[in-house]
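TA notes, week 10

Several of you asked for a full example with nothing omitted. So below is the full record: structure tokens for the whole chain, then the designed sequence directly under it. When grading your own attempts, check the secondary structure regions first.
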């Protein structure tokens, strides 16, 4: 029987009591529950009538707590809203406080049971309360709940209102102390609020004064914690902890005195003091979790700030270098870091090598600084009063009178200087707040981890072994003990494309040559599918496992598919059966190397090649590698020597590699688990060896890794080897040779591992030998001892070789051969310990040599019978032979026809359109940048925010050049690890989107040691920005004239010219389509740290698919412009040759190509040197600083080259290849003459005689041309374009 309690419809209290009571007693049955429910309702009604709200709240909470987990969150919120509303019925503040304590205490008893809901209830209660004491109590309870229930995110936003809360609560010092400490503890648990945690911890410590000595000891632990948090914080550089008594007490405490000393070092001293402290107390620092590298970074910045606070306002580069203990080229990087952290505002005077500081943040601004400021203000007030008095007493009645001397200038100067001082201090105060450097912190953490784990054998950050198609979770072990995780329900998502979903399949007949894991299952799909791996930034190994076995319902041996990662095509029309049949190496494992930028996801996409094909994979491995194990640092501009060329190749972070061979020469195979931590397989070399050789070993030798890191290769690689033996006569008759199959059309990185472990080989010339790669000489007298630095010291040598050409897709044999050098070697022998060969991606990101596509008629899930196969094979051979014959006949006919056509009309067809510039110039490309999982092609697309961060929001202190395109900034990417040049388009520039697009098109595909490397671009928000490698030595013209730089030596100038010629020849002859630069000049030849020439600025370049000329509008720079091109608008490679000839004379004479400050006769350099050569007076035009420094034979060759380049008619000019070779010859002549002169004079102090050139009557110099800015016209001009445009005479040429 149910008792109905009469209630007001407006009052929800009794229904809530009944509802909660019935739920509480529901398990006891109706007969037991009904009396209790009735009793509770009657008690509640009595409490309401008598106004006993505290008792009513207690009664309601008893039942409500029981049903907390029995009702929905919505019902629970309604119940406690009614309970909390009881406080609004109270008029007495003390009663309100008691009820608030009751409710909040009850709610926080079980903090881990629905903590978010409990916290929400407390917030509702807080908003219903009126008394400040009640509110403060409930807020403190909410803080404890947030901390114990790990729901700090819900309460952190309220901390922004703490100041207003404090005014409302009006609490005492002790309550404030508890509040600040509780907030600091909550923020400590909230990992994203470390800086705020330190702020409130400081507020807590500030509540203690000298009068609180009796309780101050309780703050010691928190004082230590505050110091450690300050030292750890990468973006907190200012505090007043030293002024706090709670912190000062640590100085006299033996347990914590060193921590206090550390704080004083950070706030009042410089890096050298910290380094001394660290050397003596490294264990203490580690015990507090302080990372030495992070501390050095912070101390460098704080030391730099301390330098900036000097009265002079200038900091010499040398002082920064010495104080921060850094290299010369790192000074500007650290200044930019300080600017970015808003510690200083300054300009970098690169000419005078000083930093001019306009504002600097005080590291410590406490009581002492305030007292100093007050004292200075008082002094200044007195000066101002004295100044006014002096002016009034010494007024000059008559204007201009000099009768009285007014002696107030000193006081006025003091006042003005102090105003500046006050302004600087106040600005420093405003610099207290610095932006969060979360990304920097992540980078530092990863970087430090990298250093620590790379000290000995490498421990990868990522070590993912995914057993595709398997449902196991971490307990699927391979025979080598390595754990593989199934891809089902793994954190690595499988995204299926349109069409059928990918499925798991188990092997039907297992290949015994493969391990069971990961080859027992596979993921197979008839449509595209993608694995997504959220990994950290950096360089990674990616290994793909394929077993050409038959799976239930599938036959993968005849199915073709492609594999792509970002812009890189790893495999194309690939079938696992081909490589597995052709190699003993279990080539079912394909290993690749890529680099990931920050915030990129590694996506591996498998795509069937035809409609009826399947894509499959058995296993995927992602393993981090040490930074620059196979790549090169952006600061290393040397690169790897290219075999057969006097050039180098840089393997930068935008290069993908595929390992094709990794051999332990002379030793046994080394399994992945016995590698140095990167799970690389090393195979024995016997199957690739051509001929004999002996196999020495020395496993007892203690290896010393002085030259290379220990993780470069396993010890076993360096303690075993293959050599030729000691038979001198026999060794000279053959080469120690390996034959390695590779694909044509790709560049390859060849790494040769060496270690001399023979005790008898100690000297650098004991064993020298020649190294041949692809039948070309890589080194003519290589000595392992010379390269490694001694016996028992491993080293390796890297080379890049181009195999075939880009259009040749056949298989090629790469020969690596060693031969004794009996001229310089004690032993006629050679040795090799190991080798690695990597394929490098080509310009379109491709690494794949496609297999033949399958015949659609033979595709299916089951094979045909052997008899049918035989019949089809015979038919296919016959039909294929006839088809091949027809194709050959047609091909020959086409070739003959095209050859005749080219003779008659010349070849002319439009160049193909290729570039990574895929979006328009009007839209916002930021979304596109985010969608790409790896850099777009070879060209990285930056967000505008990244560019602004790299340039400190285009800070004018970072401007390093100004050109026709706009300003060029020095930028710092990847937290300063990569220095770049950032060219930003000026909206008023006459160059625009077309030049911007052209530059990207060209440089995104061209990679050469003598071409500037384009790292990427940005076209967000109508900005057009290009990002290049930074060339520390600027442009060639900056070292020739109008400069304070030291003059270049003649040999340096020759090498620069030769390098630039190599780069231009590469553009003309070594790429698929000829590239005509169109703007060759000294300001477009950049110099790296070794003064290696880099041709730059391709905004005006033209792509010429092997045609004789391009009809185009005239563009270029006056003074360098080919006169034939200017007259007839016919652009050829010879136009670049003419411009380069002007560059050669610029280098020789050290003067501008066009200098309007000179007389008309000398204004145009090309015209003037022609006249000088004709008159026999060229020696007068040569740079005076080169007098006596040029060998006569070299100069004659050099002038002959330059003169031939600036012939008016293009047909009379040489090809760039000829220019390159002749400049190389000139360099050899100079070096030979220098060596001979040094030897004869027994020293470097030598001089060559001046050369008087004879008059060349064959040179026709038009006197009118010498008097004009316009190139003289010696031949009739066609009506079309029969005059030189006015644009040509203005500044519209792209400079």
């Amino acid at each position: 029987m149910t008792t109905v309690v009469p209630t007001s419809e407006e009052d929800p209290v009794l229904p809530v009591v009944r509802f909660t009571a019935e739920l509480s007693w529901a398990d006891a049955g109706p007969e037991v529950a009904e009396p209790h429910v009735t009793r509770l309702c009657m008690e509640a009604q009595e409490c309401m009538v008598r106004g006993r709200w505290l008792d009513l709240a207690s009664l309601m909470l008893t039942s409500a707590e029981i049903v907390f987990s029995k009702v929905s969150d919505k019902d629970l919120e309604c119940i406690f809203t009614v309970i909390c509303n009881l406080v609004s019925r109270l008029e007495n503040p003390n009663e309100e406080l008691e009820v608030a304590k009751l409710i909040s205490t009850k709610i926080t008893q079980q903090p881990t049971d629905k903590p978010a809901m409990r916290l929400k209830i407390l917030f509702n209660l807080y908003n219903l309360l009126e008394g400040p004491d009640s509110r403060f109590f409930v807020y403190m309870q909410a803080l404890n709940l947030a901390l114990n229930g790990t729901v700090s995110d819900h309460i952190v936003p309220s901390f922004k209102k703490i100041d207003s809360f404090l005014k409302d609560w009006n609490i005492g010092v002790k309550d404030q102390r508890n509040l600040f400490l509780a907030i600091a503890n909550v923020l400590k648990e909230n990992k994203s609020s470390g800086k705020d945690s330190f702020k409130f911890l400081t507020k807590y410590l500030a509540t203690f004064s000298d009068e609180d000595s009796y309780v101050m000891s309780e703050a010691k632990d928190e004082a230590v914690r505050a110091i450690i948090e300050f030292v750890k914080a990468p973006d907190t550089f200012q505090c007043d902890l030293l002024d706090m008594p709670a912190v000062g007490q640590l100085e006299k405490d033996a347990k914590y005195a060193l921590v206090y000393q550390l704080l004083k070092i950070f706030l009042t001293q410089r890096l050298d003091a910290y380094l001394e402290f660290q050397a003596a107390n490294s264990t203490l620092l580690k015990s507090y979790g302080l990372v030495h590298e992070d501390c050095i970074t912070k101390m460098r910045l704080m030391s730099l700030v301390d330098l900036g606070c000097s009265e002079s306002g200038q900091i010499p580069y040398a002082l920064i270098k010495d104080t921060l203990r850094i290299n010369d080229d790192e000074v500007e990087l650290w200044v930019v870091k300080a600017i970015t952290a808003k510690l200083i505002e300054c300009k970098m005077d690169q000419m005078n090598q000083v930093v001019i500081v306009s504002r600097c943040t005080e590291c410590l601004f406490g009581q002492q600084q305030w007292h100093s400021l007050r004292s200075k203000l008082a002094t200044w007030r007195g000066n101002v009063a004295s100044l006014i008095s002096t002016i009034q007493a010494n007024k000059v009645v008559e204007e201009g009178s000099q009768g009285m001397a007014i002696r107030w200038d000193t006081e006025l100067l003091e006042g003005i200087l102090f105003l500046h001082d006050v302004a600087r201090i106040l600005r420093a105060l405003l610099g207290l707040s610095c932006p969060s450097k979360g990304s920097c912190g992540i980078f530092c953490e990863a970087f430090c981890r990298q250093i620590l784990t790379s000290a000995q054998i490498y421990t990868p950050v990522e070590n993912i072994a995914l057993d595709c198609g398997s449902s196991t979770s971490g307990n699927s072990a391979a025979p080598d003990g390595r754990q593989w995780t199934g891809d089902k329900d793994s954190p690595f998502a499988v995204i299926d494309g349109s069409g059928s979903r990918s499925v798991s399949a188990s092997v039907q007949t297992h290949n015994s040559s493969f391990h069971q894991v990961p080859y027992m299952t596979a993921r197979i799909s008839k449509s595209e599918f993608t694995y997504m791996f959220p990994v950290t930034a950096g360089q990674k190994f990616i290994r793909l496992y394929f077993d050409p076995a038959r799976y239930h319902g599938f036959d993968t041996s005849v199915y073709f598919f492609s594999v792509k990662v970002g812009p890189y095509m790893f495999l194309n029309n690939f079938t696992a059966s081909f490589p597995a049949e052709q190699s003993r190496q279990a080539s079912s494992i394909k290993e690749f190397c890529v680099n990931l930028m920050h915030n990129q996801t590694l996506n591996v996409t498998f795509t069937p090649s035809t409609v009826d094909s399947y894509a499959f994979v058995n296993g995927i491995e992602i393993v981090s590698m040490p930074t620059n194990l196979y790549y090169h640092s952006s600061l290393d501009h040397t690169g790897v020597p290219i075999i057969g060329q006097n050039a180098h190749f840089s393997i930068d972070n935008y290069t993908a590699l595929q390992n094709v061979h990794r051999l332990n020469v002379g030793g046994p195979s080394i399994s992945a688990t016995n590698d140095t931590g990167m799970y690389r397989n090393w195979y024995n070399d016997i199957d690739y060896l051509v001929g004999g050789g002996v196999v020495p070993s020395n496993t007892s030798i203690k290896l010393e890794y002085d030259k290379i890191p220990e993780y470069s290769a396993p010890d076993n690689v360096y303690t075993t080897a293959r050599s030729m033996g000691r038979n001198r006569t026999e060794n000279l008759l053959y080469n120690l040779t390996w034959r390695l199959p590779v694909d044509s059309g790709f560049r390859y990185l060849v790494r040769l591992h060496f270690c001399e472990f023979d005790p008898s080989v100690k000297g650098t010339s004991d064993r020298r030998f020649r190294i041949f790669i692809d039948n070309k000489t890589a080194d003519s007298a290589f000595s392992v001892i010379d390269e490694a630095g001694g016996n028992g010291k491993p080293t390796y040598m890297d080379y890049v070789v181009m195999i075939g050409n880009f259009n040749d897709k056949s298989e090629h044999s790469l020969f690596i051969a060693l031969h004794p050098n009996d001229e310089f070697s004690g032993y006629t022998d050679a040795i090799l310990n190991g080798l690695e060969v990597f394929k490098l991606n080509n310009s379109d990101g491709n690494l794949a040599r496609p297999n033949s596509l399958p015949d659609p008629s033979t595709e299916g899930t089951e094979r045909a019978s052997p008899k049918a196969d035989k019949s089809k094979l015979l038919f296919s051979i016959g039909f294929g032979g006839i088809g091949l014959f027809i194709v050959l006949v047609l091909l020959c006919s086409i070739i003959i026809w095209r050859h005749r056509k080219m003779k008659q009309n010349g070849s002319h067809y439009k160049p193909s359109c290729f570039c990574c510039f895929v979006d328009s110039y009007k839209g916002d490309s930021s979304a596109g940048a985010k969608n790409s999982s790896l850099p777009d092609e070879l060209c990285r697309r930056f967000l505008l925010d990244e560019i602004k961060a790299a340039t400190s929001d285009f800070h004018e202190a970072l401007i390093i050049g100004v050109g026709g395109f706009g300003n060029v900034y020095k930028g710092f990417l990847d937290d300063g690890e990569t220095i770049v040049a950032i060219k930003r388009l000026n909206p008023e520039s006459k160059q625009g989107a077309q030049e911007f697009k052209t530059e990207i098109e060209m440089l995104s595909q061209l990679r050469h040691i003598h071409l500037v490397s384009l790292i990427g671009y940005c076209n967000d928000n109508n900005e057009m920005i290009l990002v290049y490698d930074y060339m520390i030595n600027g442009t060639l013209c900056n070292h020739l004239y109008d400069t304070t730089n030291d003059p270049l030596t003649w040999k340096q100038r020759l090498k620069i010219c030769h390098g630039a010629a190599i780069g231009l020849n590469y553009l003309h002859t070594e790429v698929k389509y000829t590239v005509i630069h169109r703007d060759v000049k000294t300001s477009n030849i950049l110099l790296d740290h070794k003064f290696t020439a880099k041709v730059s600025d391709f905004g005006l370049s033209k792509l010429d698919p092997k045609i004789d000329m391009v009809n185009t509008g005239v563009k270029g720079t006056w003074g360098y412009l080919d006169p034939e091109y200017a007259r007839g608008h016919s652009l050829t490679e010879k136009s670049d040759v003419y411009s380069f000839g002007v560059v050669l004379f610029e280098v020789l004479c050290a003067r501008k190509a066009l200098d309007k400050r000179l007389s008309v006769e000398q204004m145009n350099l090309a015209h003037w040197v022609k006249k000088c050569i004709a008159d026999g007076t060229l020696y007068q035009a040569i740079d005076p600083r080169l007098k006596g420094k040029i060998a006569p034979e070299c100069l004659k060759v050099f002038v002959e080259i330059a003169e031939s380049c600036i012939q008016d008619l293009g047909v009379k000019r040489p090809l760039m290849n000829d220019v390159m070779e002749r400049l190389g010859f000139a360099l050899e002549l100079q070096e030979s003459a220098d060596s001979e002169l040094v030897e004869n004079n027994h020293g470097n102090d030598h001089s060559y005689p001046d050369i008087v050139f004879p008059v060349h009557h064959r040179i026709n110099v038009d006197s009118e041309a010498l008097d004009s800015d316009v190139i003289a016209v010696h031949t009739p001009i066609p009506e079309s374009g029969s005059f030189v445009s006015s644009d040509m005479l203005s500044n519209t040429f792209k400079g």
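The radius of gyration is 40 Å. Use that as a sanity check on your answer.
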